[in-house]
Amino acid sequence: MATSSTSGTTYSIAHALTGHGGAVRAIADVHGTVVTGAMDATVLCWDVVSSAPKQSIYEHSHWVTAIVPLDAAHEAILLSEGFATGGMDTHVRIFTRSDGLYTCVAVLKGHSSGVISLSWLQNPTTPQLLSGSWDGTCRGWDIASQTCRFVLPDHENGVCVLGLPNGVIATGSTGKQQGNQVVDARIRMWHAVSPTEYALTRTLSDHQGPVRQLVQVDAIGFASCSNDGSIKLRAADDGAVLVTCQHPLNHEGKPGFVLGLAYLPQSQHLVSASEDSTARVWSLDGTCVQTIDHPSGLWCVSALANGDFATGAEDKSVRVFSYRTPRNDALETALATQVAEAHVQAARGPSAVEVESLPPYDMRASQVGKSDGMVQMFRRDNVAWACQWSAVSGTWLDIGQVTGTGSGGVVDGEAYDMVIPVEIETPSGVKKLEIGYNQGQNPFTVAQAFIDKHLLNPSYLKEIADYISDRSANYQPPILGDRSTSASGAPAVSPAPVASPYFPLRTYATFDSAKIAKLLATVEQFNTLHPVLEGTDLAQLGALITTLQQTSYYHSSTITKSQVATVWKLLDKWPPTHAFPALDLVRLMLVHPMGATHITDTTAVLRHAFARDAADATRFLAIRVLVNWAPHAPTKLVAQIDVRPSIGHATRIDFLDGRLTRCMCRPWQVASTARGHLLRRGVNRWR
After folding, report:
1. Which of 28, 176, 328, 460 is most buried, judged by most C-beta within 10 A?
2. Helix (H) / strand (E) containing 676
3. Which stretches make up the PFU domain (predicted)?
C-alpha cells in the first residue's frame, strides 16, 4: 500500500501534476493557484482541477529553489497578488499578476550564491522579505525600494529563514564539512535592535545534521527539520524544543533526510517530506499518524489554503493530497503502481544511467577517501564495483560487484528493458536525461518521442536513433527463476523492421535550420537602404539572433514582445525585394516554443509570399514561415488563415517554378495534419 494511517483524518492523493523537466524544489499556494519551481529553471502555475499548467515562466537561468506568496501588505502596495522566487542564480524575483498572467516586476540582487529560502518578516511599518542563501547570510529586503535593509552574516553554508509574528527572526544553517561528517548545524534567534539592525540572542545546536527548513506553527512557535531525520517543535521566543518527531531508521540504520516541512492549520498537523520517498503526517504531540509512500525522494511539501498539501518530488511530479475530497481510486492505483515499480528498480541495483555516472575503476588511485572505511562505487566493465578506503595503506580495497546491476529501469514511472543516458547542454550546464527503451521497439519511434518530450531539435532524430540502436545491440534479458539458461540457447529473434522516419507524416514538419550567423550584418546593410531601425532596435535583433542560434536552450530561453515588434517593423516597411532577412527571423521564432505566443498576424507574411516583384528566396521563406506556424498552435493556423486559397492562388502565378512547387507541398501536408487535429476535437473549419 502507498498509504498507511493511524488517524481519523486520512489524506489521499487528489491530483497529480506533471509537466516539469526537473526535480520539483518549491511549492506555494497563491490565492488558489499552485505555483511550483523546479530544477528545470522554470516556474509553473497550475490549474489544479484540470491538472494542467496555465502559465509557464522562463525568467530564471538556474534551479528555482524557493517560492513564497506576497503578503497582504505588499499586495496592497503593488495592487496585485503575486509571489517571490529564489533560485540558484543568486537572485530574488518578484512577480505580480496582470491580465491573468504573472510577470516579473523586480529582481533583487545581493546574494553571492543560490537563494534557498524565503519568508516574510512582520514589523510596525512595512513587512520585509527575508531570503536565505548558500552564501551563509540572511538578507532583509524592502520591496518598494528594492533595497537590502540588513544582513545577518556568519552562518554555516546554506541558510533557511523564518519571520515570526513576534518580530523575531529564526535562521537555520546546513553546517560545515569536517572529515566525513557535517557538523555545527545551528539555529539562531535574532531580535530587533532597530528597523535595520538585529542582534543574535540565542544559538541552538540540538540538530545532528543540516537544518533544512523552518515553518511557523500557530499559537506555539515554529518547527525545524533536519538531515538527522527529526522534526522539532519549538517555542517562539527562544527556540526551546517542546516536542521531537523522529523518522524511522532505514536498512542501514540511518534516518532519511527530512528536506521539507509544512504546517496544516485546519487539521493541526505537521507534514514532512523526506528523501526516503515518504511524506509523513504528524500530530503536534510527536506521533506519526500517516505515512504516504512516493516513487522517489521528496524535496519539498507545502500547505494549501483549503487544508490540502502538495509534495514536490525528484521524479519531477507534484502530488496534491486531501482529506476533504472522496478517494480517487484511479490516482491511488497509479501511485501504488509507481511505488511498486520504484521498489523493483531499487532491487535491481544501479541502472545503466547510474553506473555510467560513476568514476572509472582504473582511475580510483587518483581519488582519496575522506575517512577510513569509506565505501565508494566505481565503474568497472560497465558494472558498479564497490571498494573500501584503507587509511593505513592509502589504497582502495576491492569489495566486489554491486549485486543487481542491470540495464533496466524506470523512466517517468514506466519500467523499461533499458534506460539509456543522454546528456543535453542547458544554460546551467550539462543536463542528464534518460531514454526508456524496450527491446523490439523501433529506435526511430523512441527517438522521436524523446525529441518531442524535451523540445529538442528534430535534426537530432537519426543521431539519437543510431545511439539507441548501438546501446541496445548488446542487451541481454534478465534470467528469471532458478534455472540456469544460456542466452545462446534461446531462439534468434528477428529484429523489428525499421519504419521510414519520414512517411507517413504523423507530426508537423518544419523548416528549422538555424544558420543565421551573418543575418544581423545583412539587416544592417539593408537598413542603410531603407532606414527603419535605430540603435536600440538593432540591439534587440542581436539579442534575438543569439537566442535563436542557441537551439539547445530553447526550453529555457525567451523571446520578448519588443523583439517581435522590431522584426515586424521590417516586414511592414521594407519592400519584398529586401524582406527575406526578416522572414527568416520569423521562421525561426515560430520554431522556438515561445514564438507562437507573440506572433498572431500573417498578413505581412502573405503579402511577401505572393508579391510579383519578390525574389525566389523571399517566396521560399514566406511559405516556410506559413509551414512553421502549425506545430505550436494548429487551431490558430486554421482559424486565422485559409492556406488553401492562398496556395491555390500561388500555383496559378506564372512565376512559380519547380522548386517553389515542391516547397508548396509542405503546407499541404501541414494543413492535412492540422485538419486531423481539429476533426479529432470535433471542429471542422475546412468546409
Report:
1. 28
2. helix 658-680
3. 388-482
Fill in the DSSP letter of residue 607. Answer: H
Please state, in angstroms and rounded to a whole number, the distance separating the CA atoms of residues 257 and 174: 12
Q: Are 567 and 585 in contact (CB under 8 A)?
A: yes
CA-derived radius of gyration, the chain: 29
Distance between CA 255 and CA 280 in Å, rounded?
A: 13
Among candidate residues 457, 344, 470, 360, the one with its CA nearest the CA of residue 410: 344
Q: Does the CA dihedral 419-425-428-429 come out positive or negative?
A: positive
Cα 288 to Cα 6, 268, 344, distances in angstroms: 8, 13, 27
CATH number for the segment(s) 407-472: 3.10.20.870
Is residue 308 a contact partner of residue 322, using CB atoms and an 8 Å limit? yes
Q: What is the pLDDT of residues 304-327, one digit of tens each?
A: 999 999 999 999 999 999 998 888
Nearest Cα to 571, choosing from 613, 616, 602? Answer: 602
Does the global pTM surpass 0.90? no
Measured torsion, CA atoms of residues 142, 188, 65, 250, in degrees rounded to the nearest 10: -170
CA 207 to chain centre: 31
3-state helix/strand/coil string of 340-360 = HHHHHHHHHCCCHHHHHCCCE
- Give the class (CATH, top level) of 516-632: mainly alpha
Q: What residues does 172 pair with on adjacent strands? A: 160, 187
CATH architecture of the domain formed by 19-109: Beta Barrel (2.40)
Q: What are phi and psi of 78, to 5 degrees?
A: -90, -5
The chain-wide mean pLDDT, for the chain, equals 79
Q: Which of 82-96, 132-146, 210-224, 499-513 has the lowest mean pLDDT?
A: 499-513
DSSP string, 102-137: EEEEEEE---SS-EEEEEEE--SSS-EEEEEETTS-
CATH number of 233-347: 2.130.10.10
Identify the H or E element spanning 522.
helix 519-529
Question: Is 251 a residue whose pLDDT tops 80?
Answer: no
Which grid coordinates belong to 330? Answer: 484511479
Contacts of residues 559-567 at CB distance under 8 Å and 24 or more positions apart, as own/partner, are: 559/589, 559/592, 559/594, 559/595, 559/598, 560/598, 561/598, 564/589, 564/598, 564/599, 566/533, 566/537, 566/540, 566/541, 567/541
pLDDT at 477 over 70: no
